[in-house]
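Students often ask why we bother encoding 3D structure as a string. The short answer is that it lets us treat folding as translation between two languages. Here is a chain of 34 residues written in the first language.
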Amino acid sequence: SSQLSPATLALEREEQSRRHVPSVWSNTVSRASA
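And here it is in the second language, the structure alphabet:
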């Protein structure tokens, strides 16, 4: 997986962390980054 670009890795990590975080926190982060 070392072929993946930093941007792809960041998205992957964000997606994984989002699964482990409460939906309230996810919604807050989504709203803040929107």
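Translate back mentally: The chain has two helices and no strands. Keep this in mind for the problem set.
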